[in-house]
Design brief:
212 residues, alpha/beta, Rossmann fold, 5 strands, globular, binds BIS(adenosine)-5'-pentaphosphate, Adenylat/UMP-CMP_kin
């Protein structure tokens, strides 16, 4: 893996975002655990803004910027891109959404490591709840290989899927324990049908939204 260049932090004015003080939900889970699928349904029911760190990164890659080229290599290796890159992309997208009147955020695929969560919460605001989709590796692989037939995603192949699982087990599993200890985790068994899982999701979100 070539060395990642030093990342220049952008000077982002977070004033409007902090002033809005809308609820923020983190959505975590292994690759293919259904984060994107469930987020779509959550958006339809609760009107929250869905920001996927993976989508934001893929958009940066697509833009053809030099940074995008670096990101491609990291993502194809199933590794994590530098924390600052993701956080700045998320901040910019959140500010854009706040300008348009966002009522709250689903931050999908974030935090991927404990430090990401700590930095986000220190620089922006604490999350209200962390939703974790708990799915066996066997199911994850099956779903991703099925999706690979049509997704066109450079990381939907057996070799990269194995690396993504390795990264999840090493870097992201501690995130789950971190928020569980804080009493802020909704652990959801996510092997049933999309609608069955969504019913459990809503039971957690209804409580969290009502307790605003
Ligand atoms: P990212 O885009 O976040 O990928 P991921 O975590 O691997 O997750 P996926 O998007 O593949 O799956 P998903 O959980 O959203 O599941 P989906 O709903 O699509 O990240 C890609 C890369 O970007 C990372 O590897 C990393 O390099 C980088 N990156 C991203 N965030 C980062 C961060 N914060 N820091 C650093 N680097 C970062 O469902 C999958 C499939 O299953 C679909 O076909 C779906 O139809 C199907 N499905 C869903 N639910 C069900 C169900 N209940 N039953 C049957 N099938 C189902």
């Amino acid at each position: 893996m070539p060395p990642v260049p030093v990342v220049e932090r952008k000077n982002i004015d977070l004033g409007p975002l902090k002033a809005a003080n809308v609820p923020i939900f983190f959505i975590v889970g292994g690759p293919g655990s259904g984060k994107g699928t469930q987020c779509e349904k959550i958006v339809a029911k609760y009107g929250l803004t869905h920001l996927s760190s993976g989508d934001l990164l893929r958009a940066e890659v697509k833009s053809g910027s030099p940074r995008g080229t670096q990101l491609t290599k990291i993502m194809e290796a199933g590794e994590l891109v530098p924390l600052e890159v993701v956080l700045d992309l998320i901040k910019e997208a959140m500010l854009e959404a706040i300008k348009k009147g966002s009522k709250g955020f689903l931050i999908d695929g974030y935090p991927r490591e404990v430090k990401q969560g700590e930095q986000f919460e220190a620089e922006i605001q604490p999350s209200k709840l962390v939703v974790y989709f708990d799915v066996s590796e066997e199911t994850l692989v099956k779903r991703l290989l099925h999706r690979a037939k049509t997704s066109g995603r450079a990381d939907d192949n057996m070799e990269t899927i194995k690396k993504r699982l390795h990264t999840f087990n090493n870097a992201t599993a501690p995130v789950v324990l971190h928020y569980e200890k804080k009493g802020k985790l909704a652990r959801i068994k996510a092997e049933g049908s999309v609608d069955e899982i969504f019913a459990v999701v809503t039971s957690h979100l209804d409580k969290a939204v009502a307790g605003k």
